[in-house]
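User:
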Amino acid sequence: MSDILKGCRDQIDAIDEQLLELINARAALAREIGELKGEGPIYRPEREAQVLRRLLEKNTGPLSAEAVTAIFRSVMSNCRALERELSVAFLGPQGTYSEEAAIKQFGGLNNPKPCMSIDEVFRMVESGNADYAVVPVENSTEGAVGRTLDLLTTTSLHICGEVALPIHHCLLRRRHADGEIRRIYSHAQSLGQCHEWLNLNLGGVERVSTGSNAQAAELAAQDAFAVAIAGRRAADIFGLDILAENIEDDPKNVTRFLVLGKHEAAPSGQDKTSLLLATKNVPGAIVGLLTPLAEHGVDMTELGSRPSKLGIWDYVFFVDIKGHYQDPAVARALHELEQRASMFKILGSYPVAVI
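Assistant: Predicted structure:
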């Protein structure tokens, strides 16, 4: 048995050396491409999406699709860093789901920029103090994140990517704390996502809304009579015990995040376009507004609204469609739609989330 084990380990060592050589060869090519591109953006979400999709098609296991994407995102991240380290802004502090989404999308964060609010996340990129922003836009249980939608109406940034992050909440408490639990700290969205579990297990305990789940974990670390709802990463960062796991009411709980930057993403072959629209407040207006999509065979995947803040009962509409705005059918539909709308803005065309 020991000889067989040694033989297997020798093979692993040999493969590791081959991998190292190949990864360095890839990095050298990536750096050469960067030099050829000149001053253009070094992060190309459409190209990375194409690479990952191709690898997933060829993956025969035993590694899962999630493992393959995580490995190659890390490789691409380190190759990009040879040109320049990207700075990514997200709702902080460290330990939030926004940070997890940023790590997932960028394969790690060499220059993280945690912010205290979603407004600050937008401002960091708009002012040039960060290269990209990662912001939550909707949850499968609690719906849209209103503040993100409101800021999208005025920002000059482009949506250049999206991240779908499964959300699994934990109930956290300061280590060695015991006795009565008097407060539950968490973000309002997370409190809503765990509403029934809390009613069943901690009914009557005060629920305190915080700016982020990581902030909730930080507060619980200082309060012997409190618990927090947050992720495993927050437990590690703030030294908390995990009292219960997967306490979300919906086991398929997913939050969608947007990646924002100053440049647009080129077509990747599997894209989505987000639009901001408005029309006159008359019967049938929204149906007439969206007719060009159906006429040109463009699939609408989402339709939501927000108060425009310009008048009582006046709304703007957020629309997601399949395809890139440069695709011929999409371009024709959007041209006609623009003629009908009182407000028309392409928020971005970007690759559909990979895993």
